[in-house]
Amino acid sequence: MILGAGVYQAPLIKTAKEMGFCTIVVSRNGNYPGITLADVFLNIDTTDSANILIAAKQFKIDGIVTTGTDV
User: Fold this and answer.
1) Residue 68's pLDDT is what?
2) Which of 15, 29, 56, 71 is most deeply buried (CB count within 10 A of its CB)?
3) How far apart are CA 34 and CA 9, in angstroms?
4) Does residue 20 belong to any structural domain of this protein?
5) Which domain holds residue 6?
């Protein structure tokens, strides 16, 4: 699971996909490049830890990462 879909997360999403990972990206909906790059996009604010935890359990997530966040 990758938190954020902005320009700083796009290289992370691309690399994770190249490594064979299914990319589940969490972000608010908007004009973010990572939304279209993601295998799965979840419209959840990255500060909404309760719903992120619910989604992580639903998708049986092994790890959560991000890059370059200012939140």
Assistant:
1) 79
2) 56
3) 7
4) yes
5) 2-58
